[in-house]
Amino acid sequence: MLKKYNYNELSNQQLQQLITRNADTTNEIGNSVEAIINQVKVDGDKALFQFSEQFDKVKLSKLFIEFDEIEELAGQIDEIEQKALEKAFYNIHKFHLEQLKTENKVETTTGVTCWRELRAIERVGLYVPGGSAVLPSTFLMLGVPAKIAGCKEIIVCSPPQKNGSVNGYIAYCALLLGVKRIYLTGGAQAIAAMAYGTESIPKVDKIFGPGNQYVTKAKTIIQSNTNTAIDMPAGPSEVLVIADDSAIPAYVAADLLAQAEHGTDSQAVLVCNSETLLEKVNKELQKQLNILPRKEIAIKAIENSYAVLTTDLQQAMLFSNAYAPEHLILEVDNYEQLIPEIINAGSVFLGHLTPESAGDYASGTNHTLPTSGYARSYSGVSVDSFVKKITFQHISKAGIKNLGPTVEVLAELEGLQAHANAVTVRMKEV
Predict the structure, then answer these.
(1) How far apart (Å, rounded) are the C-alpha atoms in residues 345 and 356?
(2) Residues 386 and 144 sit within 8 Å (Cβ to Cβ)
(3) Region for 369 from its dihedrals, namely left if φ exceeds 0, alpha if ψ lies in -120 to 50, beta otherwise
(4) Is 326 one of the catalytic residues?
(5) 258 within 8 A of 250, measured Cβ to Cβ
(6) What's the mean pLDDT in 305-330?
(7) Which pLDDT does position 1 carry in this prediction?
(8) Catalytic residue among 261, 326, 331, 408, which?
(9) How many angstroms separate the CA atoms of 248 and 180, rounded?
(10) N or C end of the chain, less CB within 10 A?
């Protein structure tokens, strides 16, 4: 049963408490992660071997697998699974390819031309989670835009399986992406390894990928303490479903549970304007929970979740924008009317036949998205995430005559005479 709150009865403080998640208020996670990062920084590969034994319960003899082993592992999955991964790869590639665009040159003033050009980030690190669920889909979501962007070197880290390797699905994705080495390390230690570099793992320029609270905390610490960038804080998964009496309770319950089964720290929120619908959804949750293989995980996540009753859908949108969900599902007939009101969301799923799991796997959009309210300020991963945009400008003789006096005046009013002189000496020559 989802805990129930009435939007009209919430104080500002209660609202803030509801929309806050994964806050680590005691800094317990932060302290643990800092210790892990420091050990990797000092001990390199040695620390990674130790953490693999401590956290993954795997005693590794090497920290990576290469093409021959990747090819062998990939060959172990059946043809139906291969075709499904290929279809996902194709759709993700098709969607992201459209994001690689050349911008026009702009003549801002006669003789002054400005433009931007894309340059790929040279060495990127992809983190593919492998905790309670191994996610080859994440490998595709990160690897495809990295390849489209033209990144010269792609470093991939994923936690080792009990056999000291990765599973065949991860390996098959590596073949599709042309990745010839996978590093066998996970958690905060993998983030630290890519940020600082070890004897085996190269230092990267930017780290991508979702993870648990430890991985997310490691990424935020690394971004503060090093010159390695991150894509965004992408922690425990979450969904917010907005529904009304037009919604089908079984669909709503299924969408909530699709997030709940990710992990015990996931969150599934229902916002609706119908007490009757909420009652029906709660019944469906009980019914569907009983047949889930990951029932125990989902139950704990549902305990961490809730429902909010609103007067109308406009009020539901107010709550959604305050929550800033990673995934937003609009299970209403008139979803088009709500689209302009969406301000904060990672990815949006429209109508009764658009489950969030389609975006997780194969519709084509990216599933690496900001969580914990960071959708207020971050976008999901795209080709843009893997490139830098460098500005260029060229000034002709006519341009320096037209623009020069303006630059001189502005430089002098700021008291920067050398700036003015850089223009003046040129104007004298033309």
Answers:
(1) 13
(2) no
(3) beta
(4) yes
(5) no
(6) 98
(7) 87
(8) 326
(9) 45
(10) C
**Structural domains in the chain plus CATH codes:** 28-233 (3.40.50.1980), 236-365 (3.40.50.1980), 396-429 (no CATH)
Radius of gyration of the chain (CA): 25
Q: Is 151 in contact with 126 (CB distance < 8 Å)?
A: no
What residue has token string 């630290």? 192
d(Cα 240, Cα 259) in Å, to the nearest integer? 10
Tens of pLDDT, residues 396-426: 999 999 999 999 999 999 999 999 999 999 9
Structural tokens at position 187: 């958690």
Which position among 327, 356, 367, 408 bears the catalytic label? Answer: 327
Q: What is the pLDDT of residues 57-79, one digit of tens each?
A: 999 999 999 999 999 999 999 99
Per the CB < 8 A criterion, the answer to whether 155 and 17 are in contact is no
Distances (CA, A) of 150 to 86, 159, 417: 20, 26, 42
Nearest CA-CA partner of 304 in 342, 266, 331: 266
pLDDT above 90 for 133: no
Tell me, yes or no, if 93 is annotated catalytic. no
Model-wide pTM > 0.90 = yes
Going by C-alpha positions, the residue among 132, 357, 120 that lies closest to residue 255 is: 357
